[in-house]
Design brief:
Helix content: 40-55%
Oligomer: single chain
Largest sheet: none
Order of helices and strands: HHHH
Length: about 90
């Protein structure tokens, strides 16, 4: 299984949509698995940063993947992703 480093919301947005499509799932299929409406799945795909971590983890699980936090210092083959500066509020 390949790793896909995500450094920002735009990358996460594209990844979620592409992952759903490679799984052969429509937004309605994913909505049915999650127990939500299709417009809710659309909203999650459009703005994944606006959902709770718990909800994001549910989406990833429904898509058959998991979230992994990787410390780039543990492996020199990975490039460090800079942590965005600014307010966390």
């Amino acid at each position: 299984m390949a790793d896909y480093p995500i450094a920002n919301g735009e990358q996460l947005r594209a990844y979620l949509r592409a992952l759903r499509k490679t799984r052969g799932m429509t937004q309605q299929d994913l909505a049915d698995r999650l127990g939500v409406t299709r417009p809710r799945v659309w909203k999650i795909e459009q703005a994944p940063g606006d959902v709770t971590l718990t909800n994001l983890l549910s989406v990833l699980t429904a898509l058959g993947v998991q979230l992994t936090v990787h410390d780039p210092q543990d492996s020199p083959r990975h490039t460090a992703i800079p942590i965005p500066q600014g307010s966390w509020e």
